[in-house]
């Protein structure tokens, strides 16, 4: 119970009063109870990342080439558990920074899409060591901090073509979806058509994955908080049950279990050795490293900026010009989270669109973010369970989020061919080359060309030509064979 002031307004006392004063409950027309419920709601909607991020970042032992973080002397399950700890700490640090520094109800964690880019493109396709990939994350985070500190946001936004910015979300959605469907054996390789439909009526993994996927879609469409984590858990439990009752052979649907570990020393600080990698002394290596840093920054910056505006609109935070007041503060929280996450051993941290679920529940201040951060820390207790989740179950989240991200395509002005071309190239190239970076590059290269051809010189800036020229040079160096060797 709280006291009332002379105007009849309720005054909080004790700890609740301190929190009310610090976060400004009265100013934002909210209460402690509302903020706590909002925080719980947001956490439930995004808690799947604790399971999904490690399963993406850890090198898959079933794939011949290294496609993620591989630790000598540690099993796949131990690596997953280790990365789950890193994921939780990075999410907690970033979200608590959002709470106390920015006083906004936004949650942060390692972002889907960029973790896949880290593992499958940077480490898998480009052959870059995972230590150097972490170094690129740290460099991107520091760059983000510096540019945010000097207030360069509006100049950065003007530098990048609008149709490319709008297309990135859809391209990443397709990229995530194909990764998820492959892990679920719904999409498989084919010598004639490159990919085709998997044995969805005979393969136990594919059958269970499809059932789990549609269960998750059903829960998600009902707006049930935590629908994705519920779908992952239900699919996992069904896999263990199928083996227990003898419907399939042992080990068919469940991973081999080994002891989990909370020791993150093998990955924490690994970025330091990545910065000193021999490959960075070669021209090809420097080009590759620069493109990786650029891609991490591009997607992180615009994904965060777009999410802040979108969630801010839901909460009524935007001013008359449609901008989020003091946007530099949440951007700085994002940048700090990314830098700390890279130092600890995870890919880029970003603001989650799932924050909208908490805002819709009434979350208006950093108290909501404080609750989310505390819940992330409490989830450390469940880290051993992360290694028990099969990859096909965890990757259900990629397909669901990938499908949802396709909605971003409506923001593109498709009736203007000079927007259609760069946006279309961005969207198509990402999944077909298994690279977010290549998709962004294709869109940026095509933008000034079609604008110039259409006589729309006023839409082109010198920075557009500079970026396009840099990417043309990169593609030449990467694919011509003139230079050999990766980072």
From TrEMBL:
GO molecular function annotations of the record: purine nucleobase transmembrane transporter activity
Q: Where in the cell is it found?
A: Cell membrane
GO CC aspect terms: plasma membrane
- Keywords from the named record: Cell membrane, Membrane, Transmembrane, Transmembrane helix, Transport
The record's comment on protein family reads: Belongs to the nucleobase:cation symporter-2 (NCS2) (TC 2.A.40) family. Azg-like subfamily.
What are the TM regions of this chain, as residue ranges?
80-102, 109-127, 133-152, 164-184, 204-221, 228-248, 365-389, 396-414, 426-450, 462-483
Q: What is this protein called?
A: Putative MFS transporter, AGZA family, xanthine/uracil permease
Main subcellular localisation: membrane
Q: By its UniProt entry, which Pfam families does this protein fall under?
A: Xan_ur_permease (PF00860)
Originating species: Haladaptatus paucihalophilus DX253
Membrane-protein topology: Multi-pass membrane protein
Q: What is the lineage of its organism?
A: Archaea, Methanobacteriati, Methanobacteriota, Stenosarchaea group, Halobacteria
């Amino acid at each position: 119970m709280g006291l009332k002031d002379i105007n009849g307004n309720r005054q909080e006392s004790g700890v609740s009063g301190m929190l009310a004063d610090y976060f400004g409950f009265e100013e934002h027309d909210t209460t402690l109870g509302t903020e706590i419920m909002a925080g719980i709601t947001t956490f439930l909607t995004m808690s799947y990342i604790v399971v999904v991020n490690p399963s993406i970042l850890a090198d898959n032992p079933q794939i011949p080439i290294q496609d993620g973080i591989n630790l000598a002397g540690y099993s796949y399950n131990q690596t997953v558990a280790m990365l789950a700890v890193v994921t939780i700490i990075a999410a907690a640090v970033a979200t608590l920074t959002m709470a106390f520094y920015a006083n906004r109800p936004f949650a942060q964690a390692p972002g889907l899409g960029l973790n896949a880019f880290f593992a499958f493109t940077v480490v898998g396709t480009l052959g870059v060591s995972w230590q150097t990939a972490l170094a690129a994350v740290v460099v991107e985070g520091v760059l983000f901090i510096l540019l945010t500190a000097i207030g360069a946001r509006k100049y950065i936004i003007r530098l990048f073509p609008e149709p490319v910015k709008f297309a990135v979300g859809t391209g990443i959605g397709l990229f995530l979806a194909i990764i998820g469907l492959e892990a679920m054996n719904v999409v498989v390789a084919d010598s004639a058509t490159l990919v085709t439909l998997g044995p969805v009526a005979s393969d136990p993994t594919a059958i269970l994955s499809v059932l789990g996927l549609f269960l998750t879609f059903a829960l998600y469409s009902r707006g049930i908080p935590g629908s994705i984590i519920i779908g992952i858990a239900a699919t996992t439990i069904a896999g263990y049950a199928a083996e227990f009752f003898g419907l399939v052979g042992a080990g068919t649907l469940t991973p081999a279990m080994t002891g989990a570990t909370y020791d993150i020393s093998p990955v924490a600080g690994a970025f330091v050795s990545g910065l000193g990698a021999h490959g960075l002394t070669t021209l090809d290596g420097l080009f590759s490293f620069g493109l990786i840093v650029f891609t991490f920054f591009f997607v992180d910056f615009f994904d965060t900026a777009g999410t802040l505006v979108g969630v801010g609109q839901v909460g009524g935070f935007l001013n008359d010009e449609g901008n989020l007041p003091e946007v530099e503060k949440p951007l700085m929280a994002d940048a700090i989270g990314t830098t700390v996450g890279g130092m600890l051993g995870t890919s880029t941290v970003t603001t989650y669109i799932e924050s909208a679920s908490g805002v819709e529940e009434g979350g208006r201040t950093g108290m909501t973010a404080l609750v989310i951060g505390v819940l992330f820390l409490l989830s450390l207790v469940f880290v051993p369970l992360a290694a028990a989740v099969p990859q096909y179950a965890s990757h259900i989240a990629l397909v669901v989020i990938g499908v949802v991200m396709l909605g971003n395509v409506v923001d593109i002005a498709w009736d203007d061919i000079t927007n259609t071309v760069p946006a279309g190239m961005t969207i198509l190239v990402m999944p077909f080359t298994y690279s977010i970076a290549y998709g962004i590059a294709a869109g940026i290269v095509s933008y000034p060309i079609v604008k110039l051809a259409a006589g729309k010189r006023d839409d082109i800036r010198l920075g557009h030509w500079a970026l396009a020229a840099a990417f043309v040079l990169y593609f030449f160096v990467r694919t011509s064979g003139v230079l050999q060797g990766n980072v």
